Amino acid sequence: MTTSSFVSFITLFLSLSSSILLLVLLQLPYGNSEEESYIRLSLDEIVDEMQSLATKYSQFVTYDTSQNRYGLPSTCPSSSSQNTGCYNHLLIIADPIIYSHKSGEGQLALQHRPDVFLSGALHGDERVGPVALVHVATLLVKAASCQAKLTVAGNDCDALKESLGIENVAWLARLVSTRRIFVVPTPNSSGYYLEQRNEDYTKPNGQSTSGIDPNRDFPYNQAPSQCMKSITARTINELFLEHLFQMSMTYHGGIENITFEWGATDVPDNRVSPDDVGQRILADKMSLYAGELYSSGQLNTSPNGRFYETGDMNDILYGVNGGFEDYAYAGSWEDQLQAKQCTPSTYDGYPAEKTQYDDATLRTFNILVEISKTKDPPSSQLGTNVDLFNAPFAFDNNSNNGYAAKHIRTALMAIDMVEPYIEINKFQKKILKPEIKPLKKLRTIDADFSNKRWQKRRKLVKTRPKLNKKVEWSVGGSINVDETYLIYGKYSNFPPNSFGSVNQLNQSEINAAIEIATATSAGDQLLYVTEIQSGGTRWTDPTLSDVPTFSTLLDLTPFEKGDELAVYALAKVDQNWKNTPSGNVWPVGKDVQSHIVRQRTDETYVSNKDNIGRSVQGRLDWISVPLTVLIR
Ligand SMILES: [Zn+2]
User: Fold this and answer.
1) Most CB atoms closer than 10 Å: which of 6, 204, 247, 454?
2) Cα 463 to averaged position of ligand 1 atoms, centre (Å)
3) SS3 label, residue 167
4) What is one cellular component GO term in this UniProt entry (predicted)?
5) Which domains does the chain have, with CATH numbers?
6) Rounded to the nearest whole angstrom, what is the distance from the C-alpha of residue 572 to the centroid of ligand 1?
7) Is the pLDDT of residue 77 over 70?
8) What local confidence, expressed as pLDDT, does residue 313 receive?
């Protein structure tokens, strides 16, 4: 081979191999999209992904910074060069169409739609939470987009369904449409960018400081001059002021446990919160859904067991001053440790009225997850999407069931648990399609069924008026189903202007229907109820892969050809959450306080946040969208 031909051979070889390499690289994210390994991410990579989601899935995703949205200062001195770490990045995921009815029904549903807050890392050197949350956002919007039948480059819906399971894609899409989800992978952007715990802070005179610890910076159990010093805490505070969060997750690292309030140092020793029963149950189930951490040890969540240890922060973690956890849980109702208005001097101060709270804003279940013993485990311990939702999540040395995989799951569980729901899944052998179609309005009860659009949208079956027609349903957003049953009859016999499919009902409206069903004598009955059952949900034992279902047989013999029946499923859930804790409650004599507990255990509970048009309405019976049965 001559020199020149050798050179051209080498050139050809190099260009060929580099294009093969390029092809291989291009293939990685999408080529084999069934399987994905979670890897460590830089802030630039995270922000790129957030912006890309907002571009590709603009129907569902809003990307913003708290600097742009709330006028907060950049964390970097204006004299220094600006980078992604100077700004606090956030994503809002919501379905803008589902409740966009012109009638009042949609507005009411929007008013009650729950908000969920997810914080990936208040400490910048604790690196797994942000990775998990970026994937949570991605999974949610990919699933919603597929269910809405949108075509998005890079989103292979067949592969997604293959990899997650069709029912899980429908589940994720339901979460997107029925909640507003705030994903803040790196609230402490500055710290994450610099790979350090604290938010960087340089005094105006140029004197450098050791920075600000954002999780000591909230107005609970903290001196007024020592709270809201960081832009991280102000970012979270602004989000809480502007929304009504019922459920929140705050991810950290350096230990392994899942904890809940109280976590303030000045709460007396061995005292539990008024919501301790619900908090404890939820954290225990979350630990099981995170999956096994170790191959041996006890099944339960005790120290050194196979799963994350759970308990209240003061007991199994440690107390802090100015923690985000207690602030979000108690700032609206507990005033002994609540700081009266923060007066920080950093960043030219912060308006005092921003830390004066109404009765509704800070009653959030706020679960703290300490993900891993090392704050920044290698990519090889973060896991993959293989068997992401396939219980039992056994110990596998973090190869698939790694730290990011575990907390993609816990974050999704939090989103699910924020509000109970019921779905009728099956009539006889017919599996019914999910009623939630992202980017489509839920149909109203008086929708014109002669219109093809609505015909397609309802759950409809046609059957003869016979005995023993089997209906199956399941309950979500809750752990224990205390009571569940069906109520059915001709559409025209339900009380007018109440039974619909867009909103939950008031107890009086449900009671009115029950009265119709039970008061009339047999043979002349207008509505029918089935026997009351009890049981569980997918969260009752999260280490099982089956979602428990309920079923019963309908007697359709009282009906005639042409009758159009509505079948609703109702459920009462998690009533034990209002039980008095076994430990000593602090403050003494306080009853349950959180939205999420009162929402499902107290039918008289109403908590309004008028300035944003949101409220939490308590109820005992939650109701499904109806199944329509046409008698032929
Ligand atoms: Zn931390």
Assistant:
1) 247
2) 58
3) helix
4) extracellular space
5) 33-417 (3.40.630.10), 421-578+606-631 (no CATH)
6) 37
7) yes
8) 97
